[in-house]
Design brief:
It is built from three helices and no strands. The longest helix has 16 residues. Helices cover 43% and strands 0% of the residues. The protein has one domain. The chain is globular. It has 69 residues and is mainly alpha-helical.
Length: 69
């Protein structure tokens, strides 16, 4: 289970749990995305993950699609 707590206010912390979730899923583990805090309020809204991008990390939209966030 991944628990991102941050949303657009901290793109790095919003992205890191999704990277771990994607890696776990690629290794055959079941992944249960769960949002809490600002992530639950902001990132859960349609289209909000589209604009979250951190230099040097995959776009949150790509990661979210990989784990069906």
């Amino acid at each position: 289970m991944s628990l991102p707590q941050e949303g657009t206010n901290d793109p790095t912390m919003a992205t890191l749990p999704s990277i771990a979730s994607k890696a776990a899923k690629e290794q055959g583990h079941d992944v249960i995305p769960c949002l809490q805090g600002e992530a639950a309020v902001v990132l859960a809204r349609k289209g909000m993950v589209d604009g979250v991008q951190v230099v040097g990390l995959p776009a949150l939209k790509v990661l979210a699609n990989a784990v069906q966030l």
